[in-house]
Specification:
Elements lengths: L14 E3 L6 E3 L1 E3 L44 H8 L15 H7 E3 L21 H19 L1 H9 L2 E5 L2 H8 L6 H4 L2 H21 L4 E5 L8 H4 L2 H21 L4 E5 L2 H9 L14 E2 L14 E2 L16 H15 L31
Parallel strand pairs: 3-4, 5-6, 6-7
Antiparallel strand pairs: 1-2, 8-9
């Protein structure tokens, strides 16, 4: 049992400066895939990668689907809560304004998105990293118009950036024969192509103001047999990315680029679930009987009796409980501190109970 734990498949956390000129304020700009998507794909009308059906979100807020591909919080949610950060709305939230951006940031993450533009094309609609950065550039234009060029430049140059992405480039591209990348490259050349593409994106972020940047590596990938093949690829990608970042950090002006490897903690949770309080790490909590893989969670799915005891929510995505463990480890590794002396509680899951009947009730029930 393996899953791709890529924070936020890309998470970009931006530390902004208060426009009032006194106190510093932190907001988040999250760039990623389904591990951090909080509603963008649900608003893409033709996307086939959505978390808009029960029982996604059952342990978050009112228990209704909210766009997160899990039962509760993402790793980005938990880290942000611990730091006292506001949860950023999805980019496609129709209520998004410049003031909301300045107060809460933006989440650009999109299920199925990858480092490469060709990744995940069979989902029809999704934001690749290139598109997410393009949207971020549009956000910068809005902020410049709102507060002026100098204030906006200061805002972005004094920010912190965290980037995490890459699992879809393997499981929804290179390892799928329908994609030309699967036969154009071998393992070594594909990782080189992927790493160089990521480097180009990081250099673009630097030109947009990113100076303190953290890249989070891949964890073991997958919950079905195909993805078990990908673990060596994940390790190779992590090594190549770590080396690339070390070199890049030395070349770019005033850049401090760091690499965070979550592979070991994820692998340990999967290999030794009882050590972390889990009873199951090889099947999803939300499943479709004995049919494997049941790639998504649907109203007709069967839920496990205790969601806190399962590592996986569906075939690919961890539960809230597993996300808590990974977030705690990343907070420890990066030394994240509460913002302005605050330490906001992680509020979800707070409404829905941890124990569910074996067969999920209907939404009306």
């Amino acid at each position: 049992m393996r899953f791709a734990l890529v924070l936020t498949t890309v998470i970009v956390t931006i530390l902004g400066v208060s426009l009032k000129g006194c106190d510093s304020k932190v907001v988040q700009f999250i760039f990623g895939d389904s591990l951090s998507d909080n509603g963008n794909n649900n608003r893409l009308p033709r996307s086939l990668a959505k978390a808009n059906l029960p029982w996604y979100g059952i342990d978050f807020g009112n228990g209704l689907p909210n766009g997160r591909f899990t039962n509760g919080r993402t790793v980005a949610d938990i880290i942000g809560d611990k730091m006292g950060l506001p949860r950023p709305p999805p980019f496609l939230d129709p209520s998004l304004t410049e003031n909301i951006i300045l107060e809460n940031g933006v989440n650009y993450a999109s299920g199925g998105g990858g480092i490469l533009n060709e990744t995940g094309t069979y989902f029809i609609q999704r934001f690749a990293l290139d598109k997410q950065i393009e949207l971020f550039q549009g956000t910068q234009q809005l902020i410049r118009k709102k507060i002026g060029l100098n204030a906006a430049q200061k805002f972005f140059q004094e920010s912190r950036y965290v980037v995490a992405l890459g699992s879809n480039d393997f499981i929804n591209n290179y390892l799928m024969p329908v994609y030309s990348d699967s036969w154009k490259y071998n393992d070594e050349s594909f990782i080189d192509y992927l790493t160089k593409t990521l480097q180009g994106h990081l250099q673009l972020l630097h030109s947009l103001g990113a100076r303190q940047l953290m890249v989070l590596g891949l964890g073991p990938m997958g919950c079905i047999p195909l993805q078990r093949v990908a673990n060596k690829l994940a390790l190779s990608f992590n090594r190549a990315t770590s080396q690339m970042l070390e070199k890049l950090s030395g070349k770019l002006a005033n850049a401090s680029y760091r690499f965070g490897d979550a592979y070991d903690i994820v692998n340990d949770v999967i290999s030794n679930p009882y050590k972390y309080g889990f009873s199951n790490s090889d099947s999803p909590c939300c499943s479709f009987g004995r049919i494997r893989p049941a790639l998504t969670c649907v109203p007709a799915s069967t839920l496990c009796q205790d969601r806190t005891k399962y590592v996986f929510w569906d075939e690919y995505h961890p539960t809230d409980s597993a996300n808590q463990i990974v977030a705690k480890e990343l907070i420890k590794k990066f030394g994240f501190k509460p913002v302005n002396g605050s330490d906001a509680p992680s509020s979800a899951p707070a409404i829905a109970p941890a124990i569910a009947p074996v067969i999920a009730p209907s939404p009306q029930g």
